[in-house]
Each structure stands twice: as C-alpha cells, then as structure tokens.
From TrEMBL:
InterPro entries: AmpC-like (IPR050491), Beta-lactam-related (IPR001466), Beta-lactam/transpept-like (IPR012338). It comes from Parvularcula maris. Coiled coil: none annotated. The lineage of its organism: Bacteria, Pseudomonadati, Pseudomonadota, Alphaproteobacteria, Parvularculales. It comes from the Bacteria. Gene3D superfamilies: DD-peptidase/beta-lactamase superfamily (3.40.710.10). This is Beta-lactamase family protein. Residues 3-239 form the Beta-lactamase-related domain. It holds the Pfam family Beta-lactamase.
C-alpha cells in the first residue's frame, strides 16, 4: 500500500457514476474521507446492496464541515481497488491477517470466530437478528467481521504505531475535523479514521460502531498504552459503553 494513496490528491480522476455533482466530487481527497469532511451523506440507498446505483448527493460543501459518511468510505475503497487491482479483503490480509487471524472483510467467518445474534431487548427473543454473513466485495464502513481478541490485537498494533512512520502516526492522531458538541459527550475531533477526544486531562483515541443492535467501542490512551475493546450484541450496549467511559474519567 505504500505510495498508493496521497492524502491530499483529489479522487476525481477515478470515475464514480453515483456522484452526479462533478464539481463537488473534484474537491474530495482521501483526507476528507478519513476525517469525515466530504459533505456526503452517511448512506444513499441500502448500504448492504453492493450493486446499488442510488445517486449520492452532497449535504455540505466538501472540506467545510464534519459530515459522517459511510458512502465516502465506500468511495475510497472503490478507488483503492481500482488502483491496486485487489479487493478490500485482499488488501487487508497481508497487513493484518497474522494479527487478526479470525477476521475478514469478505463476509466469511474464519478461525475460531462464531456468529452472534443481536437483540433489541434481552427479554424478547423475537427481537433478535443474525449477524450479516454474505460474501461481498464492499463493506469498507461496516463489513469487518472480527472478535474482541482480534480487535484488541489490532488496537495494540495501532497504539504502538506499527507500520507507520513517526510523521504518519502523528498525522493520524492530529485532531483535524471537530465533531459537533451535541453528538459527543466530550470535546472531540476526527484524526485520520480515529476520534481524538479529551476526558479531563486524558487524551483518548477511539472508534465506535453502531450497526443497529450491534454496538462497539475500541479506545486507547496514547500516553500509557492502556486500552479496551467492547463488542456488544444488544441495542442497550451503548449504555454499558457509556458507563465505562464515565468510569474512565479522573
């Protein structure tokens, strides 16, 4: 992957028919995708339909404001696949396959991973749904199948800065896109793919997940190397995550 991606080079030479506003598209860079400043919506159409053709509008001008977008990550995935000739999972395996042997980006369980069923309410078995398991080529924003152990190993590698130069690691952890205060319990900004938040005197690097009944959080403290991974299979999992965050405050 080294040398394939320039964070500040426009993606526009890559054809992406679902974006009709070519003038706005010409402004989008990988940095805007990773910091959620593309102006694109979270989703346009069914996120799990890899053949959808719904046009993607722009909600704000690219580069001007925080705008969380899964569609933008799918755009970046398609760009990288075009540049390398490899699928998302094929790009994932050489870099993280040994660190995360039970994980995949192609909809298949591996190693010791087992499917989970998630619930809106533990008291209502009928409210459950199965984990989405279907071979797919997309899913950059939602398609990682993993275990708590694999994700913790990945988080530890990120904490150590493995595979990154000191300059790149500093850039990844540099706050670049402020998140509106109404959507986060503490001051926070996006770095490159990670949320950088301040809880009292502590700087915490984190990434959360919300796919319906599946909720998750991975977080670590760069100053100490301590961290945790929480994967839940209930809609109230967010309450547990919130309680852990509350307890982490000094």
């Amino acid at each position: 992957m080294k040398g394939v991606l320039d964070l500040d080079e426009t993606l526009a030479p890559f054809p992406y028919p679902r974006i009709e506003d070519k003038e706005a598209y010409a402004k989008i860079t990988p940095r805007m995708v990773l910091t959620h400043r593309t102006g694109m919506p979270n989703w346009s159409g069914d996120s799990q339909d890899e053949y959808r053709g719904d046009p993607i509008p722009f909600e704000t001008e690219p580069g001007e404001a925080y705008s969380y977008s899964g569609e933008a990550f799918e755009l970046l995935r398609a760009y990288l696949v075009s540049k390398t000739g490899r699928s998302l999972h094929e790009l994932f395996l050489p870099r993280f396959g040994s660190v995360m042997p039970n994980s995949s980006f192609d909809g298949r369980l591996r190693g010791r991973a087992v499917p989970s069923r998630a619930y809106e309410a533990a008291s209502d078995p009928a409210s459950g749904r199965d984990l989405y398991l279907k071979p797919h080529r997309t899913g950059a924003a939602w398609g990682l199948l993993t275990t708590a152990g694999d994700y913790a190993a990945f988080l530890a590698a990120v904490c150590r800065g493995e595979g990154l130069s000191e300059t790149m690691r500093a850039e990844m952890l540099r706050p670049q896109s402020p998140i509106p205060p109404a959507t986060t319990p503490a001051p926070a900004s996006y770095g490159l793919g990670w949320v950088i938040t301040q809880l009292g005197p502590e700087t915490i690097v984190m990434h959360s997940g919300n796919n319906g009944e599946y909720r998750s959080l991975a977080a670590y403290l760069p100053a100490t190397g301590e961290g945790y991974v929480i994967l839940t299979n209930g809609r109230n999992g967010e309450d547990m995550i919130g309680a852990i965050l509350e307890g982490a405050q000094p």
